[in-house]
Amino acid sequence: MPTPFAARLQEYTARISDCLERILPAEDVLPARLHAAMRYSVLNGGKRIRPLLAYASAECLNIDPQRIDSAATAIELIHAFSLVHDDLPAMDDDDLRRGKPTVHRKFDEATAILAADALQPLAFSAVAECTATTPEQSACLIRLIAHACGSRGMTGGQSIDLSSEGKTLSAAELEQMYALKTGALIHASIMSAACVADELTGTDRRGLQQYADSIGIAFQIRDDILDIEGETLIIGKPAGSDIRQDKATWPGLFGLEPARERCDELLQHSINGLECFGERAEPLRWLAHYIVDREQ
Amino acid sequence: MPTPFAARLQEYTARISDCLERILPAEDVLPARLHAAMRYSVLNGGKRIRPLLAYASAECLNIDPQRIDSAATAIELIHAFSLVHDDLPAMDDDDLRRGKPTVHRKFDEATAILAADALQPLAFSAVAECTATTPEQSACLIRLIAHACGSRGMTGGQSIDLSSEGKTLSAAELEQMYALKTGALIHASIMSAACVADELTGTDRRGLQQYADSIGIAFQIRDDILDIEGETLIIGKPAGSDIRQDKATWPGLFGLEPARERCDELLQHSINGLECFGERAEPLRWLAHYIVDREQ
Known about the structure:
Chains A, B: This is Geranyl transferase. Chains A, B: It holds the Pfam family polyprenyl_synt. Chains A, B: Keywords: Isoprene biosynthesis, Magnesium, Metal-binding, Transferase. Chains A, B: Its cofactor is Mg(2+). Chains A, B: One of its GO terms (cellular component) is cytoplasm. The first copy, chain A, is mainly α. Chain A has a single domain (4-293), classed as Farnesyl Diphosphate Synthase, CATH 1.10.600. Chain A has 14 helices and two strands, in the order H-H-H-H-E-E-H-H-H-H-H-H-H-H-H-H. Chain A has helices at 4-23, 32-42, 49-60, 69-86, 103-106, 109-128, 135-149, 154-163, 171-196, 202-235, 241-244, 250-254, 256-272, 282-293; strands spanning 96-97, 100-101. In chain A, strands 1-2 form a two-stranded antiparallel sheet. In chain A, strand 1 and strand 2 form a beta hairpin. In chain A, helix 1 (4-23) packs across helix 3 (49-60) and helix 4 packs antiparallel against helix 6. The first copy, chain A, is globular. Chain A starts with a helix and ends with a helix. Mean pLDDT of chain A is 93; it is low at 235-239. Chains A and B meet through helix 2, helix 4, helix 6, helix 7 and helix 8 of A and helix 2, helix 4, helix 6, helix 7 and helix 8 of B.
């Protein structure tokens, strides 16, 4: 049964597609091959969960969507850059993403490295060039996003993930890695609304933080579960790519059922954080359930 | 005979080393290996020509050096990131840089990719967190630097460079590629002073642009000449790494002597741009000569 936010999903995904389409150089702009690779990596029918979280957070804080466009765009560009590099032979060495050849397979390795490299400055441009936010708000967004994708955020998490292959981690260590690898950018998607809010009470900020921290980790655990279940259902093999790569994952280390329980616990904790917002947080609640229940 | 700016060189290189040292996470901050690789790639005894150009441009426009620190730091971090990725097996496949193992040789390929990835957001953080510039000036710097290192700047130039191997380009096409690959970041180093200047006449801006555009191309041609001459003098081989990789270079396509003449012509053109500044441009003049005359 569609909730009001579910009914607006398509509007928002069209909105972010539009923003991405507009900021990405056209394929006939030189260097054409590089721009083709950038567009291929971004305009690929992704679920756009991070932009949706940004728009839902903006609704929660009564912010006009055009003031969150630049952050939503930047974060999706950063997410795309990270996927291109994660897929490289020196990293996860994946040939397919969403059923299509990965960028280094479709183009070549050098082009994949450079295309992703060029998505990062494009992301920061999106924020610095936005006229719907004040320069102070843009600077706040850039600090937030830069921290989220740097060595103490997403990129650091990916580095820890690679060095954890074949190792046994405690649940706390594992979730610390998830908080960086996946959680940091999801956290930034949500907290970007706080940067452009005219005012925000301490209680509201803490509530949003609690939601952001918990749902980011839940997102990754759900990904791990899908990596196992998806393979089992679709190609009849019990092991997904995480197991083949001997990755440290929640269900891999502690079992599928405990992973599902942990996911629900995190969902509940994230929803609890939204109490102070009442009805306005409905979109964020809807997205939290979507993240934990999704089948892809 | 040391000119006044030459006497301040050491002061400025110590200043930028200090800025870089302070912004880079320590090696004992997790993930330690990633941070070690980031520090290794940046704190490597580079010549710091881009920061020097930024400080000299600040002197030219009567700007306090502390207002250009963040741009100088960001640009040197971006430069370091680009070298790490350029050296990767999928790109130039270099084992040594400045006589030391390249980052992917010293660490591993995944760490090299990620360390460089993390230098980019650190660069934008440096600017966005700076309190010596106004939020408007920070946004101007971020737009400038993001454009310089993106697909229509440095990264685009590197992409064209790779696809030009073995091809014959006209001098104009070659210099267009140099303007992106090398010129864009040098241009940003110089024009960053214009972002933080309180006011700037159109004449001054055009003069600085002329200097910036010409010296960036001269810098790359000098690099090409050194790649040939350096090898010849030091290990007695007539061919440098550019020739081995069949790179399109100025001396390679048009000869060493014409390359030297073109370099001098660009030097003269860059110096002519500084006429409106009188004595205040002495540091930039000195650096232009240094760039064209340097032996490494």
